[in-house]
Amino acid sequence: MGERIAKYLASCGVASRRKSEAIVEDGRVTLNGLTVVDLSTKVMPGDAVSLDGKPVKPKGGFIYIMLNKPRGYLTSVTDDRGRDTVMSLVDAKDHRVFPVGRLDLDSEGLILLTDDGDLAYRLMHPGKNVDKTYYVSLSNPLKEENLHLLRIGIMLEDAMTAPAQVELMHPSGLILRITIHEGRKRQVKRMIEAAGSKVLSLKRVAMGTLKLGGLKTGEWRYLTEEEKRELGVTHE
Ligand code: URA
After folding, report:
1. What is the pTM of this model?
2. Are residues 219 and 111 part of one domain?
3. Residues 187, 225: one domain?
4. Percentage with pLDDT > 90 across the chain
């Protein structure tokens, strides 16, 4: 997996392979913010590569895809057990796109795929506080005091969560809309379990400024110019 740094630069049209090697050895290239001079360094999907401080983009520019992930697909580029991944649902053959962040195998909803490592870093890095909103259906309604715990922060096995925004979406109390900005493993499910219920289904409907809107399950589309602007994409 991955591609040698000079080959990657050459494939982006920076210079010939040989000249790209010299550019790397001159210390002008960074990988995820760190200068690389070792020519055996590999670029993996999701890595951010810059030359003289400017992001290196693929010929033809970066691409940005919103997918409504169905249940049963992994949010990874490949799977060593041969299971279906979200890559099989989008048409991005000539690009090294990868899913930004993850949804569990049995979760649905908004997932962004891109080859722009810089944007991925900005969206996913802890401390960036990007809101993610989910609709969840529950096995049983939560008591008011437990909803309150979700809203002020609830103890999970590893640590407290940050306060979440939680709204009841149905009088039965069985459907919630919950917004969090952390991205711990199975976080929403674990929060709901800690509050005394169980998630039966979970769908992400928004991430930062992106909204799933009417995109149907299993369908994808390119982001609009406005959506890209709102995400702060300036180097397309
Ligand atoms: N929280 C979860 O528990 N699962 C997801 O897929 C996303 C957020």
Report:
1. 0.88
2. yes
3. no
4. 81
